[in-house]
Write a structure and sequence with these properties.
mainly alpha, 3-stranded antiparallel β-sheet
């Protein structure tokens, strides 16, 4: 065999081997990326889409507040939650509700961060679902009956609920709690959730300043009064029905 022919065959062999090696490497790389993507998705909590336009609650809650509240504040809680869980593989597969329901199981080194941020995530996820214009107040049915039994009237309930929101010093939430067929009102500080106290909320209102300050400035009472125009009573009734099964 001539020198040139041997050289040619060696070159072809190396090229073929290189092609297979590159193909194998590409396949391995793709498999690694796919696996890592699955792992990231497993550990990543996400902000659900709002489900309606930012201006859908105008003029009671302005579009800019909704945009910042959902896309910035809620998103920050979720980012911080994922960061807190980054080194805890055993916690990454848990839902937000599972995390918030058993904070004592969270390592002390990250417990405060998880408490604050999973609370913000759970609270806001519920809050967005409870906002809608044009939903009639409950006048009949189980929710209406429970409101009347627990507070005397819907107007008295609204008064006591707003009062709880006004008296929450600093930042926090006011909640309507279902305990069997009975209703009560509580408030929580910061992003604490009733779930942390093994309570079931069927309505909540955010009284952090970021929820209202662009439109109402320091007038929390005006914000709470406007809130009744955007309560999705259908969602409240559904949550009450589920809580009293």
């Amino acid at each position: 065999m001539s020198h040139n022919r041997r050289k040619f065959l060696q070159t072809v062999s190396l090229a073929i081997a290189g092609t297979f090696t590159a193909a194998a490497s590409a396949q391995i790389l793709q498999q690694t990326i796919t696996q890592q993507t699955k792992e990231i998705k497993k550990m990543t909590h996400e902000v659900a889409p709002l489900g309606y336009a930012f201006d859908a609650l105008e003029p009671f809650i302005d579009a800019k507040t909704m945009e910042i509240h959902h896309d910035k504040h809620h998103a920050a809680y979720v980012t911080n939650l994922n960061n807190a869980l980054a080194n805890y593989a055993d916690l990454q597969g848990k839902t937000a509700i599972q995390l918030i329901s058993n904070l004592n199981a969270i390592p002390e080194t990250i417990r405060t961060a998880v408490r604050n941020n999973v609370g913000g995530h759970v609270n806001h996820t519920m809050f967005w679902q409870q906002l809608k214009k044009g939903v009639a107040e409950p006048t009949t049915g189980k929710l209406a009956d429970a409101v009347k039994t627990s507070f005397g009237s819907l107007e008295e309930f609204k008064k006591q609920f707003a009062d709880a929101g006004m008296k929450r010093f600093g930042s926090g939430w006011a909640w309507l709690i279902a305990d069997g067929g009975k209703l009560s009102i509580i408030s929580t500080a910061n992003q604490d959730s009733p779930i942390m106290e093994e309570k079931t909320a069927v309505l909540g209102v955010d009284v952090w300043e970021h929820a209202y300050y662009l439109k109402y400035q320091n007038r929390r009472a005006d914000y709470l009064a406007a809130f009744w125009n955007v309560v999705n009573w259908d969602d409240v009734a559904q949550r009450f029905a589920e809580a009293t099964k």
